[in-house]
Amino acid sequence: MTKTFTTDQRDALLAAAREAAARAYAPYSKFHVGAALLMADGSVVTGANVENASYGLSLCAETVAVAGILSSGDRAGDKGRLEAVAVTGGAPGAPGEGDVVSPCGRCRQVLNEIAQIGGSDPLVWCDGRDGPVEMRLSQLLPYAFGPANLL
Ligand SMILES: O=c1ccn([C@H]2C[C@H](O)[C@@H](CO)O2)c(=O)[nH]1
């Protein structure tokens, strides 16, 4: 079943992502990312990027959000499926400010984990100055390797 959403629902999820981005800990890149995940039960879980002085240990916003859901004990099967994702980000004043931000490769794989265990192919809205770009996770990560291969 493919769920559809109203523009208001999409914009509310993007607003939640923007609120999360304001809480980013990104003193090194100054690139503040927020992610908001909408579950089938209507709950929204957000995450922001959390950088580290080692740089390479930095955590992306989408990964923080997925870890929040799964580590809270709400496995996707209990809480409901992952229905939609909103991602926003940028560095204020940087040349690329307002460019579309889509999940990095690692985050696509992390999102695929929670999507597959709940049996969904979530919509992903990527914020940008000309309005959000909408894709399915399966378009961002075709032929995904995931729990379906192992469980
Ligand atoms: O999908 C992405 C891509 C990047 N970042 C973060 C990592 C780093 O803190 C900053 C610059 O790469 O943006 C995310 O949170 N999500």
Automatic annotation (TrEMBL):
It holds the Pfam family dCMP_cyt_deam_1. Its EC number is 3.5.4.5. It comes from the Bacteria. Its cofactor is Zn(2+). Residues 8-148 form the CMP/dCMP-type deaminase domain. This enzyme scavenges exogenous and endogenous cytidine and 2'-deoxycytidine for UMP synthesis. Belongs to the cytidine and deoxycytidylate deaminase family. This is Cytidine deaminase. It comes from Novosphingobium clariflavum.
